[in-house]
User: Fold these one by one.
Assistant:
Number 1:
Amino acid sequence: MNRCRICNAGELREGLVETWMPAGPPLAGWVLFRNVPATVCDTCGEKTFSQETAERLATILDPASRETPSKFLRAPVFDLALIDAAQAKGKKPVAA
Ligand SMILES: [Zn+2]
């Protein structure tokens, strides 16, 4: 069995994972890939992609790619500046 080089404890297994990657135009944001073949550590969760898979993801994100996203997700957003402002306005400061 292959041992994880990150945590030195887990074993590496082949699997399909989800992974986020930054994308340039026209998507310009974080993109979620699903069902991506990877080697995954069963202890720390570190994901490693083959060169072939990494190149495939980059090709899909290339503006010249004909691939289109299968769906779009809405993401909840936490803005720490707004949270801090709300706490400063109405609540006691959180003890450090
Ligand atoms: Zn690990």
Number 2:
Amino acid sequence: MLTLSDVRLRRGPQVLVDAANCSIFRGEKVGIVGRNGCGKSTLLALIRGDLAPDAGEYRASPGLATAAVAQELPETGATLVDYIRGGDLELATLEGQIDEAQHEVTASDAPRSPAPLPSDGTRLATLHAEYDRLGGYAARSRAAQLAAGLGFAPDDLEQPVRQFSGGLQMRANLARALMRRSDVLLLDEPTNHLDLDAVLWLESWLKSYAGTLLLVSHDRALLRGACDRFLLVAERSDIESRLADPDTYAGRDAPDQRSLSARHGELSREISSLEERWLEIASALEAAG
Ligand SMILES: Nc1ncnc2c1ncn2[C@@H]1O[C@H](COP(=O)(O)OP(=O)(O)OP(=O)(O)O)[C@@H](O)[C@H]1O
Ligand SMILES: [Mg+2]
């Protein structure tokens, strides 16, 4: 489905990947690992179609729908739930067509307009049937579930997406990418703006994702949980494909993000309980005069 044949990838004068050969098959969950700066994001840019190989050939089966997380903050007045829902491109297109057909039917009903075309009503009915078939009526609740999983509160859904902090807007971008009906999902460090609960939710979402996943992450527990195969991008060399545990080679020098997040949570709880204890002591002292 995705095939690299003798691919060379270069950024400026630097050769990142050379003579890489690998195939990724439909439905595989692939973790991409390697040291900082080795070319993991560059490899995803190739698969996204934003970059051509410097040598060799990259082929993808025709017609694949690829989803990736937008890196720019949303430029829209849409509410959070509509922004996420808009990730489903088929539905968004269909909604546009329904609006257009509805407009034509309404216009042809108006007095002094030319006689109504029977085909307009038929077209509208066909579009509504297609909308139903694609699960259009359930799209809002699907978007709301993605938002909840990624840590938004129910009250957030109707807020304009642009009013959230940068980190939360990136979460909205992630939710929008998950909303897309995709054959291939590309995620590059998706946990950067997530807390531990959201990371755990994402892991279970990815396990049930039916398409092909390419995941770059420093969270080794996420890689282990969501992926069944790993590609190692080693500096200026071929891409190695391994089935091993990412712990054995993925940035051994880097601390594990999952255990850091867990430790951070524990320390925050310890600090809060020490603060509470301190307040109790202070008020007891005050009462004692
Ligand atoms: N647009 C660009 N122009 C020139 N050099 C670039 C560009 N993008 C990346 N590079 C360089 O190419 C190398 C690989 O970058 P890339 O972002 O693919 O690595 P990475 O493995 O994703 O790194 P990280 O783990 O830090 O995310 C780096 O040395 C980087 O500085
Ligand atoms: Mg990167």
